[in-house]
Amino acid sequence: KKRIGILTSGGDCPGLNAVIRAVVKAAELNNWVVYGLPYGTDGFQDIANEKCCPEDLLLTGRCYQLPGRIRGLDVLQFFSGSVLGSISKGHPEDPEVKAAILKGYKILNIDALIVIGGDGSLDIIYDLAKEEKWNIIVIPKTIDNDVPFTEFSVGFSTAVEIVTQALYDLTFTAASHNRIMIVQVMGRDAGHLALRGGIAGGADIILIPELTPYLSLDVLDGCCHQLLKLQKSGRHFGLLVIAEGVKNQKQQKEPYIADYLLRQIQEYSQILCHEKHEDFCLLKDVDMRVTVLGHLQRSHPPVAWDRLLATAFGIKAIELIEADNYDRLVVWQKGQVSSEPLSAVINTIKERHQQKVCTSPVEKHDCMVKTARS
Ligand code: F6P
Prior knowledge:
The protein is an alpha/beta fold. It contains 13 helices and 13 strands. Strand 12 and strand 13 form a beta hairpin. Helix 1 (about 15-30) packs parallel to helix 11 and helix 2 packs across helix 4. It is elongated. Bound molecules: 6-O-phosphono-beta-D-fructofuranose. 6-O-phosphono-beta-D-fructofuranose binds near residues 118, 186, 188, 244 and 298.
């Protein structure tokens, strides 16, 4: 009879609860117990500081009953967010925090820990687990879909759906007012969400960091020509999607890069108009608006595919623990669930972070494209 811990770390996304449900249900079949750690590694600190005892955290065997004999667990997969709560990093580099995490882990006395995490939070927990020889299994989740080795992370498909729906909705107001809508999409340094959502939502232009790392004059020129083409074809509205990871002309990150782009398009088309490219005077007067989709992209109930993926991943995690096969990332590859060694995943993530320090535009472009391809 094994004792399993489970926690969610990093930004929330749709499907986290579906993973938790699948893990608990699969563990119940083996008669194992599952403890849910509140707020990531903070949960271990709570145990160490006697804010809660392990029994408070038990997820198995609990019949938190809703009307009609529905158990909380039965409907958990339909809700977004994380019932366990999540934290970004947890600061285990602080010696006091680290000591409390280790103490709590010891008190909980688990055989394995399942971490539902993404690119941003994985390396920290991995270092801790390696140092302390914890048995861990990681389940990838993020709307950015940038965890290496897996074609899909939990949460991504729902976010794509939200972006697609937003673009559909914006089409009608754009068309009614002959406006260009500039839509900023999340994804951190990756453009997967902007690209897929943009294509499915019928965007006219999509800017992603892998191809246009920053808003160079060339990029602006391309956008203006494309928008002008639309105007001249008689289509007086348009949808322009920009991933938040695209940088400004100085190659710096802007929290509202879509606003920056709007100003740049206006200025650039004005310059072109003054330079007697008369066509562009058409563009100068076009009305433009910005929509930043923000955290709405993370908070929708998971779509069916995310629930299926979450369920397959949760069951796989329990199978790996059954086989005492630890330090693995559960992945989706070529239509199947399988797993990869965590060390390889972490190396790839660390390499990527190092590549981000390249400075010249050409170098940067090359390494971003390499990253996207990997
Ligand atoms: O990594 C997921 C993500 O939603 C990114 O797309 C986004 O840049 C970031 O998290 C936002 O983080 P926060 O919730 O801390 O604002």
